[in-house]
Amino acid sequence: MIVIPAIDLRGGRAVRLRRGDPSDETAYADRPVEVAERFQEEGARRLHVIDLDAALGEGDNRQAIRDICRAVVVPVQVGGGIRSLEAAGAVLVDGAARAILGTAAAADVTFVGRAVEEFAERVVVALDVRGGHLMIDGWREEGPELEPALSGLNDAGAPRYLVTAIARDGTLEGPDLTLYKHVLKLTDRPVIASGGVRNADDVWALREVGCEATVAGKALYEKTLKLSQVTRG
Q1: Which of 50, 86, 117, 224 is least surrounded by Cβ atoms within 10 Å, i.e. has the fewest?
Q2: Band of the pLDDT at 233, cuts 50, 70, 90?
Q3: Residue 223 reports pLDDT greater than 60
Q4: Domain limits, the chain
């Protein structure tokens, strides 16, 4: 079980949003590179970097992402506003190990098929779930229902999913285990869980239901979870 620290970028800073709400932001660091380096020193085996400005259509943090990828040796998966093959290729050229596809993947499964043909296992498909639907456009609009969308993405060859329980994201209320159990029944692809993790017990619970990894953000920043607690197994 791998815990992947999250670094969400907005205006050049490392921040966390509560339930994806841009008006409910907590800023944690003005120098995201230092955050990335600290997570690596603490034992992170992968980093999760999201460009919130790009996701929200308010600019981008591409230089900060480049700087993070150059500063660490662990793989970095990058998402936020990646809605074309060119955008996916660009983040990979910038040093990312994986490109996370969200809105475009939910809207068009053929896009996922083309991305997999081009980039193979370096693609992660984000399933951002609220009320049984995928949310798109920076989680501001309701997209397709989860089950039929997931079936189509399986058929398109999606190699791995990042499943976020939006209602739990940034809350420290614990993960939505029911959601992950449901998703894992609908696919044989690896699933990375995101949203609500608060402590080591939550990490082990996600491993128990079958998740490959979990993204942790606020728990690490608020120190309710330490990487040293979950680097075994």
Answers
A1: 86
A2: very low
A3: yes
A4: 2-226
